[in-house]
Amino acid sequence: MHGMSARGMNTSTLKPDAKRNLRPFAIIACLSVLADPLGARGPTGALAQTTETLEGARAKKIHKGRSPAPRAAPPPPASTRAEASAPVPPTFYSLSTLGDHLYSVRWELAAVGAGLVAIGLRDWDWGGSEFQFIEEGWFAKNTPHGGMDKIGHAFSTYVIADILTDRIRANASNPAGAPITGALVAFGIMGLGETLDGFTGKHRFSREDIVANGIGAAFAILRNSVPGLREKLDWRLMYTPASFERPGITASEEAGLLPPYQRQRYIMALKGSGFETLKNTPLRYAELHVGFDARGFELDERRLGYPIERTLYVGVGLNLNEVLFGAGSAPNFRKYKNTLPAWAVQKTFEYLQVPYTAAYAGHRFSRIRR
Question: For the region Disordered, what residue ranges are annotated (predicted)?
Fold first, then answer.
C-alpha cells in the first residue's frame, strides 16, 4: 500500500475549612481502615461511625446535665456535600487505554502487518540495498509520480486508521479515544514501512512520504471525531478500467498486489444520506464527487510518448451503501446491516469507488508534452 488500541478513580474534593474541621475524623478513619484486616469498612463507613460515636457521647453529657432548650440542628453544608459526592470525569486517554485498545485489535494488527510484509517483499524489494534517502517533491512536473504516491501514502494511512478505529469501538472495553489510537498505530505502521523502503534501491526513505502519512492519520481523526462527518464524507480510490485510459496504459510493467499509479484516481465523495434534510428524499442515494489523477509520469506512458497531465474531476455518483443497506421502501439488505459481513461490504464501498457508478467531467490544469 505504498502510497489505529486503547481502554480512573473518582476523588472527592473538600473546601479548605471543611478539611480543617474534619481532620480529626479523617485520622480516625484512616486508623479504622488499617485496623480492619478484611477491608470491609471503607473510609466513609469509618468516618460515619466516628461521627456517630462523638454525637452519642455528646448526647449522654447533655442528658446528665440540665436539659437545654430544644433547638434545630444546623443543616449540613450543602456545597461541601455536593462537592464530596460529585464524580470526577474519567481520564480520556492514557497508556492503559492505549494498551486496552491494542489488545482489542490484536488480530487486525496481525493481518495488517502480514499484508504490509507481503506487499513490501513482493512489490517494494525490501532489504535490497543499504539505507538511502531521497527528495521526491510533491506534485511538480519533475516528480516521479506527479503526487500520486503522496496521495497514496495519505490514503493508505487513513484506511488503516479508520478500520482500526471501527474495530476498537466494537471490541474495546473503553473505546474513548479510539480515533487517536487508530491514527497513532496507522502512522507507526506506515512509518515502519517507509523506513524499510530506505533499504530498497528503488524507493528509498522519503520525508515527504512521512508527512503524507501524517496527513492521512489526521484526516482519520477528524472524520471519526467530528459528529456526523463520517456519514457525510468518504475518501475513495478508483482502480480505473482500461476504457478510462489511453491505449497502451496497462498494469503489465509494474504488476503487483496494488494497482499502479497510472490506473489510480482518488475521490472525495459528499453523501446526501448524511444530511437530515435529504434522508427521506431520493437525494439520499446521490453523491457529489471531487477527484484527482496524474498521468504521463510512469514508464509505459513515457515509452508511448503520452504527455504529462494532472486532472481535477467533478461528478455525481450513486451511493451503493445506501442502495444496499439504507432505510426505505425498496427491498435491500438493511436487516443484515449490523453483521460482520455487511460491515466489511460497507467499508469496502467507503474506500473503493466502483467504476461506472458515477459520471465525471474533468479539467486538465497542467499539460506538458515531452
Answer: 60-86
Closest CA relative to residue 219, chosen from 167, 152, 139, 162: 162
- CB-based contact 174:168 (threshold 8 Å): no
Residue 163: phi and psi, rounded to 5, are: -65, -45
| Between 352 and 56, residue with greater pLDDT | 352
What are the CA-CA distances from residue 102 to residues 96, 165, 184, 369 (Å)?
Answer: 10, 11, 11, 50
Question: Cell triple for residue 97?
Answer: 487505554
User: Three cell numbers at 140?
Assistant: 511538480
271: its cell numbers: 453523501
Which pLDDT tens digit goes with each residue over 128-166?
A: 667 777 777 788 788 888 899 999 999 999 999 999 999
- With cell 475521490, the residue in question is 267
In angstroms, the CA 119 to CA 157 distance is: 15
Q: What is the DSSP string of 90-105?
A: PPSS-HHHHHHHHHHT
Q: What is the pLDDT of residues 287-335, one digit of tens each?
A: 999 999 999 988 888 888 889 999 999 999 999 999 999 987 788 899 9
Please state the domain extents for the chain. Answer: 1-7+94-225, 232-370
- How far apart CA 208 and CA 291 sit, in angstroms, is 21
Nearest CA among 210, 232, 219 for reference residue 284: 232
- Comparing CA positions, the residue from 98, 124, 112, 152 lying closest to residue 266 is 152
How many Å from the N-terminal Cα to the C-terminal Cα in the chain? 29
Distance CA 190, CA 170 (A): 23
**CB-based burial of residue 77 (10 Å sphere; 0-12 exposed, 13-18 middle, 19+ buried)?**
middle
Q: 322, 325, 317, 298: which is closest to 309 by C-alpha?
A: 298
Q: How far apart are CA 107 and CA 88, in angstroms?
A: 34
CA distance 136 to 260: 18
- Which secondary structure element, helix H or strand E, spans residue 293, and what is its range? strand 286-295
- Look up the pTM and report it: 0.71
d(CA 302, CA 322) in angstroms, rounded, equals 41
Looking at the DSSP bridge assignments, the partners of residue 266 are 237, 292
